[in-house]
Amino acid sequence: MIPVPSSLAVYALTAFCAVVVVVTRWILGSGRSTGHGVSPLVLGAHTGAGLLATVVWTVFILIPADGKAWHSALGAVGLGAWWVTGWFGVLLLGRWLPSRGRHSDARDRRWFLGLLLAVVGHVGVLVSGVVFTLGYLFGAV
User: Fold this and answer.
1) In angstroms, what CA-CA distances link 128 with 14, 55, 69, 75?
2) Which domain of life does the protein's organism represent (predicted)?
3) DSSP code of 107?
4) Residue 18 vs residues 7, 36, 67, 99, 107: alpha-carbon distances, Å
5) C-alpha span between 61 and 141 (Å, rounded)
C-alpha cells in the first residue's frame, strides 16, 4: 500500500465533497431525480452550507497556518459548515425511503443506481467531516 500524504487526502476529499454538493443540487433542483420530491428548504440548506464549506475550507487549507486566531476560526467555520452539509445530506437520503400507497412500488431501473450514488456521496461527506475534524484537531491540516 502506498502511503498518501494527509494534505493530498484532504484536497481530494474537499473536491469530492464539493462535487457531491453541486451534483445533488443539479439533480434535485432540476427535477431529474427518481424517487420522492424533497423539501426546497432542505435542498437549499444543503447547497448553501456546502458552498460555504467549500469556499471557507478551501481558503483554510490553502493559506499557510500562521498561528493566528483568525486562521483557526476559519477552519472551525469550515468544519461546522461541512457537518451541517453532511447532516442535511442525510435528510435528503430520506427521500429514498419506501412510501406507502397503491402505486408506491412503481420504480424504474435507475432507482437503485440513484440510491447507491446518493448513499456513497452523502455518507462520504460525513466521513470526510470526520477526517477533516481529526486532521484539524491533530494539526494535520
Assistant:
1) 8, 16, 24, 14
2) Bacteria
3) -
4) 17, 24, 27, 30, 29
5) 6
Task: Please name which of 86, 83, 87, 94 lies closest in space to residue 38, comparing C-alpha atoms.
Answer: 94
User: Other C-beta atoms within 10 Å of 113: how many?
Assistant: 10
Please report, as a single letter, which amino acid is at residue 55. Answer: V
Q: How would you class 25 by CB atoms within 10 Å of its CB: exposed for 0-12, middle for 13-18, buried for 19 or more?
A: middle
List b or e across 119-130, with b for residues whose CB sees 16 or more CB atoms inside 10 angstroms. eebbebbbebbe
For 35-72, write each residue's pLDDT tens digit. Answer: 556 778 888 999 999 999 999 999 999 988 777 889 89
Which sign does the torsion angle of CA 124, 18, 141, 3 carry?
positive
Grid cell digits, residue 114: 440513484
Nine-digit cell at 12? 481530494
pTM for the structure as a whole: 0.81
Q: DSSP for 63-106, please give it.
A: SPP-S-HHHHHHHHHHHHHHHHHHHHHHHHHGGGSPP-STTTT-
Rounded CA separation 83/132 (Å): 10
Give the other-Cβ count within 10 Å of 62's Cβ.
Answer: 9
